[in-house]
Design a protein that fits this description.
Blueprint (H helix, E strand, L loop, with lengths): L3 E6 L5 H12 L2 E3 L1 H10 L4 H7 L6 H14 L14 H17 L3 E4 L3 H4 L6 E7 L2 H10 L4 H22 L12 E4 L4 H18 L2
Parallel strand pairs: 1-3, 1-4, 2-3, 4-5
Length: about 210
């Protein structure tokens, strides 16, 4: 039996809403914002700090600052007062722990954070990728309150940052089609996509009994 569905996605395609619908229809736990909270707990950070940094490579100025602290100032501090630097490598390491915590909690829908990679060898995990056209994603963000310039900037930069992060810290291209059981274009609508995803999982279970 499938114990978890992982949902990787392009930014802005409606994956969070679809994941919530899927979790509700199956009666499973949803690990989306909850994963961010778990990563924050494990890194002794805040949810807001994790949201700013997760799945992005360290900018050059941050790398210089981090090296300065680790090589000088931070190294001279007592252990109890040392700064907890939330760098990209730390987020990648902790994300794997958080994803496996989600899996161990019971039947779950797990959104992003490398879950499709970290759980790739599990036979009881169904891996999904969601995408849509650039124009659809921009219109969707605008309909939710973003200005046109904000929507275009977010759509054109967020996934590029993911590509760089996944290449550097997981050694993969993004997305890697072979990691997924299925890929859905979300332009059919959130409810329709969720319905098809749930049926696909159920059919997969029937075929593999």
């Amino acid at each position: 039996m499938i114990q978890a569905i992982t949902i990787e996605r392009e930014f802005g395609c409606g994956a969070s809403e679809i994941a919530s619908l899927v979790a509700s229809r199956l009666g499973w736990s949803l690990w989306d914002d909850r994963l961010t909270q778990e990563i924050a707990r494990l890194t002794e950070s805040t949810r807001e700090a994790v949201e700013r940094r997760e799945w992005r490579t360290d900018p050059a100025v941050y790398r210089i600052f981090k090296d300065f602290l680790r090589g000088g100032f931070e190294g001279g501090l007592p252990p109890t007062n040392r700064l907890h630097l939330l760098d990209a490598r730390r987020i990648a390491e902790v994300s794997e722990i958080a994803v496996k915590t989600a899996l161990s909690s019971g039947p779950s829908v797990i959104v992003g954070r490398g879950s499709q990679f970290f759980l790739r060898s599990r036979k009881d995990v169904f891996r999904v990728f969601l995408y849509s056209s650039r124009d659809h994603k921009i219109r969707r963000l605008i309909s939710r309150g973003a200005s046109q310039d904000e929507a275009i900037e977010q759509i054109d930069t967020t996934d590029k940052a993911r590509v760089a992060f996944v290449r550097q810290y997981l050694g993969l291209k993004w997305p890697e089609p072979h990691l997924y059981h299925t890929m859905f274009n979300t332009e059919m609508g959130e409810s329709c996509t969720a319905t098809m995803l749930v049926e696909c999982v159920r059919q997969f279970e029937r075929d593999t009994e």
